[in-house]
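Blinded run. Sample ID left blank on purpose so nobody reads anything into the name before looking at the predicted structure. Input follows.
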Amino acid sequence: MEETQKKSTRSSRGRRRGSSSRRYNRGGEKDRDRYYAFFDAEYTCFMDSDRGFDRRHGSEVLSVGLVIADRHLNVAATYYSPVRPQYNPRLTGYCKSLTGLKQREIDEAPDYDTVFQRMTDILQDYPVKEIFVWGNDHRTLEDDARRNHRSVPKKTRRFISQVTDITRRLTSRIFGYAMTVSLSDMKYICDMDHETAHNAFEDAMDLYHVTRCCLHDSYNKEKAQILKNYISDRNTYHQYRRIKYPDKKVEIVSDKRFKKLTMDYIEEIKKLYGKGDRAVPPEILAVCDDIRSLAAMSSQDCPKLPV
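Blinded prediction complete.
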């Protein structure tokens, strides 16, 4: 398939899910003073029941999305392409469902070396010092290169070395200290849809929009405080959890009377610690879910972000 070039726009949301087109969009005159790159990749994935998946090769790059912005954080260029894995080119059902990719897209996609060569070519036009991601893509890319590509070109290795997790920088700027938070949660404070697309281009564009929103100080301050409180409660809840998985072998799992007594006991605990307008503390919610686990019941009280 041929790549297409056209002027990029700030409002672009990327490709239709499932589309297999590869593109490089360029817009405006190049300002070589400073550029920012935002990157995301999807990787091969599987469930325990996927017997045909060769697990020795870990996660191979399946698609990439790249957004380049100028020093004013206006989009200068974008790129998207699916990638044909070398060892697990057949998509699992789980991977199709998660990413929206079609097998035909992968069958017709260029290989790893071709795609990364194209991205490094683009970065020659728009030189950057860092390629921002949200999360541990740098580690996953390094692992893929080490396991599955014996001879990785120097330019590709340099690309991978430039990949930098921007999570700590943005959360420190917004909350005063570094936090572990998902990109979808950061979208929440930017009044964006609170979900993760699992589409390399859309997620790279979301990262760009979140970064632009935070650096321009245009995020929702009230939602930022709600998110901060939620993260604190969530962390406390997990800190106090002790029994996280119900024992499916417990015979009482079918005892409806025992389950009712368990739920009644949990409700009494919540009433005791959540009197009046006071919310039930997250450490007590953790105890409530531990009790559920002892009764072979699923957890229900992990703090949730209001949406």
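Unblinding after everyone has recorded impressions. The first strand starts at residue 23 and ends at 26.
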